[in-house]
Design a protein that fits this description.
heterodimer; A: globular; B: mainly alpha; two-stranded antiparallel sheet; 4 strands; disordered C terminus
Chain lengths: ~290, ~325
């Protein structure tokens, strides 16, 4: 299997990861209108918790994975229940207030974790990096795992949004929050649920990503930005757009690795973002505003 | 200790220039940029390269730094101003990652991650600036020039009113024939040029530049200064810069194991940000102080009120 095809597959796997995180961000943002960068903190907490469970305590994956997802939901609820509701009660802040506060959360969590685990990259689940088979199948298993998880989450979220009362409520909040507030159908419970569910998606991204690339404290901010970048590339407010945007960013990174030293890959991904913004500011699937 | 604080004061004043420049974006135009450190860095690298390869003249270096900062800002602004306000910060983060990578990888010019060392001491006319006092004067002069420019542009010239119009109601500004994208572009370029200006003095003073000094963390620190001091107030960002720089430097003086100082500083900044957003979302500059009647800062205050009002209306929608 040629290097390029291998890189493309890896690129799609990373893209699926960014798309997954982008969907989590979008679920929270479109429902609650809170620009939440603390998804990066959730991502870090879940990743390091999973690392400790599997690597230090030797707990089996069957227990560690559900625990990781639960921890994600718990983080989302904790951040929403503490800082976000606190701001909501006191000042009814705008984009700026929530962005800065969630950024504060991310900074605190990131640095506490780097004091505990060190600032280097740690890995777990090396066996996932083994190729599936010879020849055409010489792709690390984790790449397929990433893609499978992302597709499963996308299908599940899509079904939830279309078919369940909760999903209808989320879509209604995304469409017209003011109206729902006036008629009393918006409330903290729904916002909390959006945070919990969005954070589970982030947790899923974290579990996939620790197999793909390990984890280091600076990944939190990076992931939050890549998630939002994926949304920008794909088109704001669209879950399909987030997945597509993620894959575009992932492929851009993969191609960068093909021709340039590895240190360039983030730069190339964000370069792709700026190019898309230049050509089509609403994103690839974006509606005209 | 006095020398230590004189050193810190120079860095604080230069950071103050960047924070005041960033405030043109955050406070006046209503866009959030996490790339201000990059323009500081572009200025610093330009200053370093000019003084190593061309001339030790500080004035020439400063002019080059302004031009380089403005050009870098223009490259960034052309795609970035097309995106809706809230997402500007992501584009700016992306730009910051790209330029930091260039600093770290373009080894023949920037020295790679090792940076550029041995930047010669600068000269102004016949005089050589070698000691801390000289640089302190230099930093003060740069701050004074930047303040004068900002005061003229933001408070006197029509451009400042256009920026606030775009901030408060983009649609209305557009309806009056002012292109919001163009106003943002000019604001970004102005902020970039001023940061580049400060960066030149930084490079001359520290005599060493490397990529880590201008990465995303530095940009975030600038953003913190603006928010702490009060976005949209004139002197707030400078106060924020002084508080943050002296605060973090003093933390460094405590007897904490070396590896923990950085994370602890960051944690303190993070906690400060959270508490600020909960209690004083407008920053320290927005706390009501007893004011002398007729003081010039009254207009700042009403500006700020208008801004808070606009934000609340935006939420209500």
């Amino acid at each position: 299997m040629s290097l390029l095809t291998q890189l493309v597959v890896t690129g799609i796997a990373f893209g699926a990861l960014y798309g997954l995180a982008g969907m989590g961000f979008n679920l929270i943002f479109s429902t609650t209108r809170m620009f939440d960068v603390s998804i990066g903190a959730t991502y870090l907490v879940v990743s390091y918790l999973f690392f400790s469970l599997v690597h230090d305590l030797h707990i089996s994956l069957a227990i560690a994975i559900p625990l990781g997802l639960l921890a994600g939901a718990a983080c989302g609820l904790l951040f929403y229940g503490s800082v976000f509701t606190w701001i909501e009660r006191r000042s009814r802040g705008g984009f700026f207030t929530y962005f800065v506060a969630s950024f504060g959360i991310l900074t605190v969590v990131q640095n506490i974790l780097s004091m505990i685990y060190g600032s280097g990259r740690v890995f777990v689940g090396q066996e996932l990096l083994k190729p599936i088979g010879p020849g055409l199948l010489a792709v690390p298993r984790v790449d397929f795992l990433a893609l499978a998880v992302a597709v499963a989450c996308y299908v599940g979220l899509d079904a939830l949004l279309r078919r369940t009362p909760l999903g209808v409520r989320f879509r209604a909040l995304a469409e017209n929050q003011a109206l729902l507030t006036i008629i009393g159908l918006a409330g903290r419970t729904w916002y909390a649920l959006a945070f919990a569910l969005g954070s589970v998606l982030i947790a899923a991204a974290a579990l996939v990503s620790i197999g793909l690339q390990g984890i280091s404290p600076s990944d939190g901010f990076n992931l939050a930005n890549l998630a939002i970048a994926a949304m920008l590339v794909g088109g704001l407010g669209s879950y399909r757009g987030a997945m597509l945007g993620g894959v575009v960013l992932g492929l851009a990174q993969a191609v960068a690795v093909w021709r340039l030293p590895g240190a360039w890959n983030s730069a190339i991904a964000f370069g792709a973002l700026l190019v898309v913004l230049l050509v089509k500011p609403t994103g690839l699937l974006g509606r005209a505003r | 200790v006095i020398v230590f604080y004189a050193n810190v004061a120079i860095l604080a004043l230069l950071a103050g220039v960047c924070a005041m420049a960033l405030n043109v974006l955050v406070g006046e135009t209503g866009i959030f940029s996490a790339a201000q450190g990059v323009f500081y860095g572009v200025g610093a690298y330009t200053g370093a390269l000019v003084s190593i390869h061309l001339t030790r003249s500080l004035v020439f270096g400063l002019v080059c730094g302004i031009v380089a900062g403005a050009v870098a800002a223009l490259v960034f602004a052309v795609p970035a101003v097309r995106v809706r306000g809230d997402y500007f910060i992501v584009a700016s983060f992306g730009f910051s990652v790209i330029v930091t990578t260039v600093f770290a990888q373009w080894k023949p010019v920037t020295g790679g991650s090792a940076g550029l060392i041995g930047i010669p001491t600068p000269t102004v006319g016949p005089a050589t600036i070698g000691d801390t006092g000289g640089f302190l004067l230099c930093a003060l002069a740069v701050l004074a020039i930047a303040t004068a420019v900002l005061h003229y542009v933001v408070r006197r010239a029509p451009l400042g009113r256009m920026m606030r119009a775009v901030r408060d109601d983009e649609l209305a500004a557009a309806a009056l024939g002012k292109s919001p994208a163009m106003v943002r572009l000019v604001a970004v370029v102005l902020a970039g040029a001023l940061s580049g200006f400060a960066g030149v003095v930084y490079a001359a003073y520290v005599a060493f530049v490397d990529p880590t000094g201008f990465d995303i963390n530095q940009s975030i620190v600038f953003l913190t200064m603006v928010i702490l001091g009060g976005a949209g107030t004139f002197w707030g960002p400078l106060a924020g810069a002084l508080v943050v720089t002296f605060g973090t430097a003093s933390l460094g003086l405590l007897h904490i194991p070396g590896g923990l100082v950085g994370p602890l500083q960051q944690i303190c900044l993070g906690i400060v940000l959270i508490l600020l957003m909960v209690f004083w979302p407008g920053g320290l500059g927005a706390i009501r102080l007893p004011r002398r009647p007729g003081a010039g800062s009254r207009s700042d205050h009403s500006d700020h009120q208008a801004r808070v009002g606009a934000r609340q209306r935006e939420d209500a929608r």
